[in-house]
Amino acid sequence: MERRTVLKLSIGALLGASTGLGGLRAAMAAGKDIVYLTPGLDLPFWRYLAKGVEATVKAQGYNFQALDSHNSAQTQLQNAQDAIARGVAGIVISPTDSSTAPSVLALAKRAKIPAVVADIGTKSVALRRQHLYKKLGRVLVAGGIVLIGAALFGALIKPLGFTGLLALMVLLIGVAVLFGKWPPFPEPRQADLPKADLKQLAGRTEIWLEAQRPALPAPARQLVDGIGVQLDLLAPQLQTLDAATPAAANIRKLVGEDLPELVAGYQRIPAGLRGEAHAGRTPDETLLGGLKMLEREIGDAARSLAAGEIDKLATRERYLQLKYQGLEADDTPGAG
Predict the structure, then answer these.
(1) CB of 207 within 8 A of CB of 127?
(2) Residue 88 and residue 35 in contact, taking contact as beta carbons nearer than 8 Å
(3) Side-chain half-sphere of 101: how many Cα atoms within 13 Å?
(4) Are 131 and 181 in contact (CB under 8 A)?
(5) SS3 for 281?
(6) What string of DSSP letters covers 2-57?
(7) pLDDT digits (tens, 9 = 90+) for 248-260
(8) CATH class of 3-119
(9) Collapsing DSSP states into helix, strand and coil, what is residue 115?
(10) Which of 88, 23, 31 is nearest to 62 (CA)?
(11) CA 173 to CA 92: how far, in whole Å?
């Protein structure tokens, strides 16, 4: 299923919520916009996604505006603040990094403006971008080697001539095509997630969830988007967490085992039976309940890890206050 098709349900939910809020039907009639906060329209992927969002928004009768963040979290947050200040009808965001989605969603909630995330999370995008940059690096290195070889051949053996230049161009194109497609991005399998490097666990889980998302019911897709936001909050903490600690083991089990197994277990149930009640609940209801619980647990884990750093920062601030404010008090004329 195409990504822009997958987005229609989430954005449709936003539009439905928007028209359900007091006064926004009149706002739509007055030409209110749905804004899409995109990381950067310089990349084909985000342009493609923007077209999908635009098609869905305009089909519902809204105006559409894409706000380019130029791959800057600060610019994306400023774009969101500007959009909220002018009272847009809704916001769709593809986060630039892990800091922007929670901030924008919180600002929109306070302003009572519907908002949805048009992506599972940003860590998966970061991993794919790293892979792309590595492939581009290989293309440049291989192309450089070919050009150096051609220059040496022309200088030491004989000039290339028209035929040689034509062959060189064909060879450079072949190198670009070969290294542009190879190696393909290593899509994670469920069995690989529990063994993934802790620093990449959040991103690789997001990538795996992206592949499973089309097979999930619409309410579950929205919860998966929320889990992606929580994984983005967790990811920076995993960069410095000791993999041998009990906290790391708990997070690995929560993110690498429990979450994938819940989604995979649901998919193993035949589609025709997912709406039938068993022991008082349907598989659809069980999936939603499990995803809500996991979203909460992942968010709690991120905040628990961050709490230690927050305490250290507060302690450091208190130390600086005692050190420097105390010195100022001692230096005050007449002190003592």
Answers:
(1) yes
(2) yes
(3) 25
(4) no
(5) strand
(6) -HHHHHHHHHHHHHHHHHHSTTHHHHHHTT-EEEEEES-TTSHHHHHHHHHHHHHH
(7) 999 999 999 999 9
(8) alpha beta
(9) strand
(10) 31
(11) 38
Q: What is the DSSP string of 219-253?
A: HHHHHHHHHHHHHHHHHHHHTTS-TTSHHHHHHHH
Q: Calculate the CA 200 to chain-centre distance.
A: 13
What residues contact residue 118 under an 8 Å CB cut-off, 6+ apart? 7, 10, 11, 36, 49, 53, 92, 93, 94
**Closest of 309, 122, 99 to residue 205, by C-alpha:** 122
Question: Helix H segments across 113-270?
Answer: 122-156, 161-181, 201-212, 218-238, 246-253, 259-267
pLDDT digits (tens, 9 = 90+) for 48-89: 778 878 888 888 888 999 999 988 889 999 999 999 998 999
Cα 114 to the center of its chain, rounded Å: 19
* β partners of residue 37: 67, 93
Laid out side by side, the sheet with 33-38 consists of 63-68, 33-38, 90-93, 115-117
The distance from CA 240 to its chain's CA centroid, rounded to whole angstroms, is 20
Q: Tell me the whole-structure pTM to 2 decimals.
A: 0.56
Give every CB contact of residue 278 below 8 A, 6+ residues apart in sequence.
none
Residue with tokens 């979450």: 259
Task: Print burial letters for 301-329: b (CB count within 10 Å at least 16), e (below 16).
Answer: bbeebeeeeeeeeeeeeeeeeeeeeeeee
Q: How many Å apart are CA 92 and CA 296, to the nearest integer?
A: 23
Closest C-alpha among 260, 227, 247, 263 to residue 307: 247
Q: From CA 121, how far away is CA 225, in angstroms rounded? A: 7
Kindly state the tokens that stand for 150: 């051609």
Would you list the domain boundaries of the chain? Answer: 3-119, 123-181, 190-320
